[in-house]
Design a protein that fits this description.
- The structure is a single chain.
- Helix content is about 60%, strand content about 0%.
- It is mostly helical.
- It contains 8 helices and no strands.
- The chain has one domain: Hypothetical protein af1432 (Orthogonal Bundle), CATH 1.10.3210.10.
- It is globular.
């Protein structure tokens, strides 16, 4: 998985994950770290395989690994992390020589990954579903305060 390996080695990817970690060190809710991104990638690729979808493993992993890179910018300035993540992904994908068409597809999936109604692509729909499926709500001590699961609503346990 050439693209995935180059993303993981890219200094902007590593820097953004470090900034996310620093910004979330006191956070009681879900974290947006490498483990979360890797979990999303694995679940997303399982979905691709189960549904026999035409998405390459490397593209699915790349999209999932990049999807929350902009979280630190959201904490810092209030900017939408999905849009900021898409921008950061565009820089990284350009630096490693990913074809523009593929880069734009990945950026679109990242830009629209937060809400079900925003999906403009299959890649985006799988990213959305896998991101939600990877929330560790079952064991969360802060679930009652979580904005994602208002009182009376069960957390997602499967996709």
């Amino acid at each position: 998985m050439k693209i995935t390996e180059e993303i993981i080695a890219h200094p902007l990817f590593r820097d953004s994950l470090e900034r996310n970690e620093e910004a979330e060190k006191e956070r009681v809710f879900c974290h947006h770290d490498f483990q979360h991104c890797l979990d999303v990638a694995r679940v997303a690729y399982c979905m691709v395989l189960e549904k026999n979808l035409p998405i390459e493993k490397d593209i699915m992993y790349a999209t999932a690994l990049l999807h929350d890179l902009g979280k630190w910018k959201q904490y810092e300035s209030g900017l939408d992390h999905a849009q900021q993540g898409a921008n950061l992904a565009g820089i990284i994908l350009g630096d490693i020589g990913v074809e523009e068409k593929i880069s734009l597809e990945i950026q679109d999936a990242i830009r629209t990954h937060r809400y079900a109604e925003n999906k403009t692509s299959l890649l985006g729909a799988i990213l959305y579903a896998s991101d939600k499926a990877c929330r560790p709500c079952l064991f969360c001590k802060s679930l009652k305060e979580c904005k994602l699961f208002p009182e009376g609503r069960e957390p997602l346990l499967q996709y």
